[in-house]
Design a protein that fits this description.
Layout lengths: L1 E6 L14 H12 L6 E3 L4 E8 L2 E8 L6 H5 L19 E11 L3 E5 L7 H10 L5 E8 L13 H8 L5 H24 L1 H9 L6
Helix pairs in contact: 1-5, 5-6
Length: 209
């Protein structure tokens, strides 16, 4: 069996430390934590790829080089559907998609399964490409927190766009790095013990400060 972990974001230097690139950032921290080789470009799927081992299982880390809204063009080539059922591809249950979520405060992350895109265009592109919502995804919070600890959510299309394309502050980048370490732990549980166990552990983690 093999697993694929996808980090959503946008290619290009101008997007490197932006909130909408959180999926790619976390993916790279996972690669480092699990001693993966440097990412290499795979022309066939138009993505940066690195392989790591979790126990005896092969795990492929994938960062699509398409822009966010077209993430499904890459991921659709990796997951088995009715159209490509004869190909030796993973099933949707062995896919984990990592992406930014401004409805969660920074320092929090959650695993969800079999849910809608919640308006996230990259995730929606993946859902359309593999023709199912039944796959695990790791939502990583990017919003500042209110006094009560909830996400301070931007409202209105213009404000949302401005927010997700804004860069993390230096202290927020430190938090993202810590989350990357936790995400690597979550990936190992996901591979070794399954989605339900990983969900319980990751969703029960305290907020990273």
């Amino acid at each position: 069996m093999s697993y694929i972990i996808v980090g959503l974001g946008n290619p290009g230097e101008e997007y490197v430390n932006t909130r909408h690139n959180t999926g790619r950032m976390i993916l790279d921290h996972i690669r480092q934590e699990l001693d993966g080789a440097d990412f290499e470009f795979d022309k066939k799927i138009n993505a940066l790829v690195s392989e790591v081992k979790v126990g005896k299982e092969k795990v492929t880390l994938v960062a699509p080089e398409t822009f966010m809204n077209n993430s499904g063009k890459c991921v659709g080539q990796l997951v088995k559907t009715k159209k490509n059922a004869k190909l030796k591809l993973i099933t949707a249950d062995d896919l984990l998609v990592i992406y930014d979520d401004f409805q969660l405060p920074i320092g929090r992350m959650k695993i969800s399964y079999n849910k809608s895109s919640g308006g996230h265009n990259g995730l929606e592109s993946v859902i359309k490409a593999i023709k199912t919502e039944a796959f695990p995804r790791l939502r990583v919070g990017t919003a500042p927190a209110t006094a009560k600890g909830d996400a301070k959510i931007p409202h209105g299309d213009d404000k949302i766009l401005k927010f997700i394309l804004s860069s993390f502050k230096p202290d927020e980048m430190k938090t993202i790095k810590k989350l990357g370490k936790r995400a690597a732990e979550g990936v190992q549980i996901f591979v070794k013990e399954g989605r339900d166990k990983a969900t319980g552990v990751v969703n029960g983690m305290l907020k990273v400060q």
